[in-house]
Amino acid sequence: MPTITDVISLLLRASVYVVSLGYNGSHFANVFVCTSLTVCVTPIGAIAYYSPVTLTTILGLFCSMPTLSRAGSMRSTDLTGFSRDEHYYFQDGNIVLLVGNVLFRLHSSLLSRECEMFRNMFSKPTRIASSMSLDGASEMPKKGKEGGCDENPIIMPQLRPQSFRNFLLAVYGRPGDKEFRALFKGVAELESVQAITSFLRIIDIVDLAHRFIAPDVETWAVSQLKGNTRLIETLNAYPISSKSHIRLLDYAKRTGDEELILWARHWARSYYAGAIETSSIASSAFGPAQKIREQLVREYKLATITQSFDTPIFGYLFCFLLSLGHEFWDKQVDLTREDRITLLGAQGAPINPG
């Protein structure tokens, strides 16, 4: 039976709009793909209708859904461990989204105004039937409309709550909110920590604006990013998660923005370059540089395992790791014997001038 990875690979290779799937809780069976203007995902014994723009969300949704009951209807979401967001759970909201383990109660009118993905999602509500008659009549779930309450939220897969909060700041922001105002200020107008926080928020905003098809928000966020390209030295003064570099680079590559691709690579390269010092490794064993070096090792291992890392960045990682020498490699438990042999061979390999 094909897995979710198989299905997504199929969809990426072809322009399709309709997908009919039989889902048994862990695999998809009876995959049927054809060209149309709607998407139909059919768990065993149930029917659900979605617009094509939400296809990625739907595939992740059904993979993360609870198991089916014997009658075929989906069991209500187990709320154990879920919490309501402190800032974006509005009592007068009319749509409940689940991101990670956090519930957001929002206003569909605001999301639809900015985001085509949400506009399409809300204009064609999901209908889930525990049984289907021959004439197509359906029975609505006992828990009510999906997204209408905490017990039956719309699950948003592959999102981090904090990234979603940052995006919502662009949608719900108001002039009296200092965090919102900071998004519009230049580097020179903010303290270093504020500038970094604001810049990282904008990366989340531009990434999710592209995913949710919010062109106005995306255009503004891109202009803010490019207006702060002088921020590299300030950014690199703090231990920032490499996920920020990767997320920005992935976004730039998805949109084909060559200027942003070059800048994102330069940011990542200069960040790791700060870990290479002339002083001995022992003297900085517990300093910020050592933490960045250890992060470099983790990123290198991730790149070798997934084999999907950006090629120029992988080259930077390899060269930087190579420059730290065997004394550093020997102390890294994450590096295998094969890794050390590869590095040692590259360090001692003669250069062929031809």
From TrEMBL:
Residues 93-172 form the BTB domain. It comes from the Eukaryota. This is BTB domain-containing protein. The lineage of its organism: Eukaryota, Fungi, Dikarya, Basidiomycota, Agaricomycotina.
